[in-house]
Specification:
There is one protein chain. The chain is α+β, with helices and mostly antiparallel strands. It folds into three domains: 220 residues, 3-Layer(aba) Sandwich (Rossmann fold); 99 residues, Beta Barrel (Elongation Factor Tu (Ef-tu), domain 3), CATH 2.40.30.10; 129 residues, Alpha-Beta Plaits (2-Layer Sandwich). The strands form seven sheets. The chain has an eight-stranded mixed sheet, sandwiched between helices. Helix 11 packs across helix 12. It is globular. The two termini are 40 Å apart. Bound molecules: guanosine-5',3'-tetraphosphate. The site of guanosine-5',3'-tetraphosphate has 18 residues, from helix 2.
Length: 529
């Protein structure tokens, strides 16, 4: 395929994720976005809620039972001649490694806030990851149909706590809970008024009115909105593409996902303001051009998404070139090649064979050997993207198979869950192979392991939580030094053979460091989310 065609297709792509605190309305917004757009393929991105139309993910019952999104999936749709790829992020802090990987695969994030709550703990943590990855962030202030905080106060909070300049593109007429319309600051002589469709099942109907004495008379919130806009003009809070793309400012939109108000303006912003896929930095500091031969990043691996197929899918973000089904790809970590001839490209539980995918697109490759999250794949011209960080675990537990006759299934399940990045698996010098130690960033990861071992592998297991909270990297000499200490354990991480020492608390760690001054201990990457 000519390079120009790849470039042209890449320019049409927008690949993004929504970051939010649980309950801010991420699922509702996703459904509302899909309503405005022509859904090409849906991947169970949204956990179904009764009474609402939903793209239901039913491959993980636990996800449904808990009402949390454990798995990340993909929704692809077209809008105004562009192809939008929306990647779902897990809503819970315990799955921070998954979230990090997803954010490594997008070019932009939508930060969704609940108008009554503003910035919440999980939003702050997720925003930090975006900042770290230098992702441009678009802000959507949701639930304006419901009583909430004052618009200027919310902007002030964003500026103060995130250190990023909010530049509203739309502005609400009427306080939260009394939503009378929106003003698009690019067309300040008009206001948009909406007739909400019952249940938000259809996009709200929009009427444009010119702002004049009659409308000021008719809409009680309009005068205040005009004054606030003058104030914003006065302080120069205008959208500036360069500042947005470098993470210094965030365009802000107001609306109500449930009433489907303001959502099309957000979609327009993704098309008009958000960046298309750009050349990606490789591990050695070089840039992989969009038009270069195919390269991709595995950001998620998931087994058993479809019970009927019992297979394993690696979700790959296309970074350069074209993915064509049947092409031979090389896994950078091992230099081994594999064919995608029999691998379907799939989205979620519905198998849609995708013959071709372009930069920004997500391809699900089925049963492609031993791919793990963070892998780089390439065609012809080698490249390796920087490794994904492995976060410092803070929770440790010994896992044991409850049924010895199922030990083969137990070990297979453990291997799979480790490859997916669901949990880190370690061997303790003191405990041996039959009692591997699981290490997690958040304790809910343990629940996922037990649930999936039982339901997907028929291998019931039990956990014994260990009283350690702190982990440090050590070396062979450190392992020897710590051998006689009863207050620590040395673990070998399966995935990379890294030697890790674990301690119950800072106090013990300090004491051991004082007693053993020659001991090498280094901190690991802290879990930012
Ligand atoms: P999440 O994925 O971020 O966790 O949030 P979700 O979309 O599930 O929404 C959380 C709750 O907020 C839901 O209410 C949803 O209806 C409500 N919500 C979402 N967007 C809006 C909005 O624009 N305005 C108002 N007023 N509410 C909104 P729920 O009672 O938990 O569920 P349900 O019974 O309504 O389905």
């Amino acid at each position: 395929m000519p390079a120009a065609e790849v470039g042209k297709q890449a320019t049409r792509r927008r690949t993004f994720a929504v970051i939010s605190h649980p309950d801010a309305g991420k699922s509702t917004l996703t459904e509302a976005l899909a309503l405005h757009a022509k859904v090409i393929s849906e991947a169970g991105a949204v956990h179904g809620k009764s009474g609402r139309r939903g793209v239901t993910s039913d491959w993980m019952t636990m996800e449904r039972e808990r009402g949390i999104s454990v798995t990340s999936a993909v929704l692809q749709f077209s809008y105004r001649g562009r192809v939008l790829n929306l990647l779902d992020t897990p809503g819970h802090a315990d799955f921070s490694e998954d979230t990090y990987r997803v954010l490594a695969a997008v070019d932009c994030a939508v930060m969704l806030l609940d108008a009554a709550k503003g910035l919440e703990s999980q939003t702050l943590k997720l925003f930090d990851v975006c900042r770290h990855r230098r992702l441009p962030v678009v802000t959507f202030i949701n639930k304006w149909d419901h009583p909430g905080r004052d618009a200027l106060g919310l902007l002030d909070e964003i500026e103060r706590r995130l250190g990023i300049q909010p530049t509203p593109v739309t502005w609400p007429v009427g306080l939260a809970g009394d939503m009378q319309g929106l003003i698009d600051r690019r067309r300040p002589a008009n206001m948009m008024n909406f007739t909400r469709a019952p249940g938000g099942a259809q996009p709200a109907e929009r009427h444009d009115l010119s702002i004049d004495d009659n409308s000021i008379e008719e809409f009680s919130g309009l005068r205040a909105a005009i004054e606030e806009l003058e104030l914003l003009d006065g302080i120069g809070a205008f959208h500036d593409p360069a500042r947005f793309l470098t993470g210094k400012s965030t365009p802000v939109f107001f609306g109500s996902a449930i009433s489907n108000i303001g959502v099309n303006l957000l979609l327009d912003a993704l098309v008009d303001l958000a960046p298309a896929p750009a050349p990606r930095s490789a591990h050695d500091g070089t840039l992989r051009d969009i038009e270069a031969p195919f390269s991709g990043l595995v950001f998620k691996v998931q087994a058993n998404m479809n019970r009927a197929h019992r297979d394993r899918i690696a979700f790959v973000r296309v970074c350069s070139g074209v993915f064509e089904r049947g092409m031979i790809l090389t896994r950078a970590a091992t230099g081994r090649s594999f064919t995608t001839k029999y691998a379907h490209a799939i989205f979620g539980k519905d198998r849609v064979t995708v013959e071709r995918a372009y930069p920004g697109d997500i391809v699900g490759i089925v049963n492609a050997g031993s791919l793990v999250s963070g892998d780089t794949l390439y065609h012809e011209e080698p490249v390796e993207f920087p490794p994904m960080p492995i976060f410092a675990p803070e929770h440790f537990a010994v896992i044991r198979s409850k049924d010895l006759t199922r030990s083969k299934q137990f070990h297979r399940g453990m291997e799979q869950l480790e490859a997916e990045g669901v949990i880190q698996v370690m061997l303790s010098d003191q405990r041996g192979r039959q009692a591997p130690v699981l290490a997690a960033v958040g304790p809910m990861q343990f629940d996922v392991v037990l649930h999936r071992l039982q339901h997907e592998y028929g291998a019931p297991a039990s956990l014994e939580q260990l009283d350690y909270r702190i982990v440090r990297r050590t070396d062979k000499a450190g392992r020897d030094l710590l051998r006689s200490s009863r207050e620590t354990e040395v673990l070998t991480r399966n995935r990379d053979g890294e030697l890790l020492a674990i301690f119950p608390n800072e106090w013990r760690l300090d004491r051991i460091t004082r007693d053993l001054p020659d001991l090498t201990l280094e901190p690991l990457v802290a879990a930012t989310v």
